[in-house]
TrEMBL record:
HAMAP family from the UniProt entry: FtsA (MF_02033)
Boundaries of every SHS2 domain copy: 16-212
NCBIfam families: ftsA
Membrane-spanning ranges: none
Protein name: Cell division protein FtsA
Keywords assigned: Cell cycle, Cell division, Cell membrane, Membrane
Protein purpose: Cell division protein that is involved in the assembly of the Z ring. May serve as a membrane anchor for the Z ring.
Cellular component annotations (GO), alphabetically ordered: cell division site; cytoplasmic side of plasma membrane
Gene it is expressed from: ftsA
Quaternary organization: Self-interacts. Interacts with FtsZ.
One Pfam entry name: SHS2_FTSA
SUPFAM superfamilies in the record: Actin-like ATPase domain
Length: 432
């Protein structure tokens, strides 16, 4: 299941279709990637993206990125993809899909090969990457990304491209992002039922980082936290490469359920209360400001109850602190708190909550800013917020996927006993 995506050709315009399957929303975008001149902003991007088809709808049959009901998931995806196809006037055959499910995780593998004092050639780079790949493959997990972080020549680290250099020993560090194979297979199954092929899988935290980070952040070290509906994902970038990815199965929808349980209101009402009045930072007037609530099962002619806004804050704040503390503990355990420098970028739908950057600053003890997707033209107004960062990142991904290591596919022979031309000849002889 390694990426099969061809990088976009420099100087050529191409069409890309992406499908963001979340726990609360599903979104499909068809965009035209046109070559752009190298600018000061967003230096890594070779193309500008212009959206020509957009479809958006509530998710069904998916929980925490895992397919829970194949019929419902198929129907929800068909509706959204159909909407985008009608807007663009095209029929899709294959899509780029994001992966949040399957206990997403990342490890760094290292390998070295000897050069005997010769120049580094493409074959040597390929040999060392293959050595890493053979160490990282496991039967129960599928590799989604294999990103070379940096090369070393005779112990000298920090080499970007060793081609043409001379040395005795070539080493490489590769960040490998993987997920459980069965979760991927179910995702593939649903898309096949919708008559769609998976062009490539993109890890959600990687896509969110590509969309929201500015150039110097990725160089100096930064962590991007994507607060989704039922999962929160983290990616750490350093020296321009992603070096770590992780996912926690708690998200914004858990806050909604907390409110619904504690206040005994319906889930739809709890979502409305969270969006309109929710905050994780207590304010001065919170005890005096009253919010009307309609308890579950109350008839329409009953007067709604009232609660102070402070009660809502007291329900929401512990859950947000739990998510941020879990992220901090995971990153400290893996040593990534030092790699990410002094900066966190918050994105995803739940990141737009009032007071979240202040709470995050206190718990993570780092500089925090809110991130929004950048550099995508033609998006409708609804899709310009942080909730659509993953989708925007998947439009950037074809421009950077050339950096990844992909296992070569066996090339078809044209001649010989079992070659393509020989088989055509046999068919002609036997048929006529």
């Amino acid at each position: 299941m390694t990426s099969r995506l061809r990088p976009v050709q420099p100087g050529k315009t191409t069409l890309v279709a992406v499908l963001d399957i979340g726990s609360t929303k599903i979104c499909c975008v068809i965009a035209r990637l046109a070559p752009r001149p190298e600018g000061r902003a967003l230096r890594g991007r070779t193309h500008s993206a212009e959206v020509i088809g957009f479809g958006y709808g509530p998710a069904a049959g998916v929980k925490s990125g895992v397919v829970t009901d194949i019929e419902k998931a198929e129907q929800a995806i068909r509706n959204v993809v159909g909407m985008a196809e009608r807007a663009a006037g095209l029929t899709l055959e294959s899509v780029l899909v994001n992966v949040t499910a399957g206990r997403l995780g990342s490890e760094t593998f290292s390998a070295a090969v000897s050069l005997d004092g010769q120049e580094v050639e493409k074959a040597d780079i390929f040999r060392v990457l293959k050595a890493v790949n053979s160490r990282s493959v496991r039967p129960e997990r599928s590799i989604i990304h294999a990103l070379p972080i940096g090369y070393a020549l005779d112990g000298q680290k920090g080499i970007r491209d060793p081609k043409g250099m001379v040395g005795e020993k070539l080493g490489v560090d590769v960040a490998v992002v993987s997920a459980e194979t069965l979760a991927m297979r179910n995702l593939e199954l649903v898309l096949h039922r919708c008559h769609l092929q998976i062009e490539a899988l993109v890890a959600t935290p990687y896509a969110s980082g590509l969309a929201t980070l500015v150039d110097d952040e990725a160089q100096l070290g930064v962590a991007c936290v994507d607060f989704g509906g039922a999962t929160t994902t983290v990616s750490v970038f350093n020296d321009g490469h992603m070096v770590y990815a992780d996912a926690i199965a708690i998200g914004g929808h858990h806050l909604t359920l907390d409110i619904a349980r504690q206040l005994s209101v319906s889930v739809a009402d709890a979502e409305r209360l969270k969006t309109l009045h929710g905050s994780v930072l207590p304010g001065q007037a919170d005890e005096r400001e009253m919010i009307p609530i309609q308890p579950v099962g109350a008839s329409h002619d009953e007067a709604p109850g009232q609660i102070p806004r402070a009660v809502l804050t007291r329900i929401m704040r512990p859950r947000m602190e739990e998510i941020l503390t879990a992220i901090r503990d995971r990153m400290q355990a893996t040593g990534m708190m030092d790699v990410c420098g002094r900066r966190f970028v918050l994105t995803g739908g739940a990141s737009e909550m009032t007071g979240l950057p202040e709470v995050a600053r206190r718990i993570l003890a780092r500089n925090v800013r809110n991130g929004r997707p950048m550099g995508i033209a033609g998006l409708p107004e609804i899709a310009k917020g942080a909730a659509f960062a993953t989708m925007a990142g998947m439009l950037v991904y074809p421009q950077v996927c050339a950096q990844e290591y992909v296992e070569p596919r066996g090339s078809r022979k044209l001649t010989g006993t079992d070659g393509y031309i020989a088989r055509v000849g046999n068919w002609l002889r036997t048929s006529f």
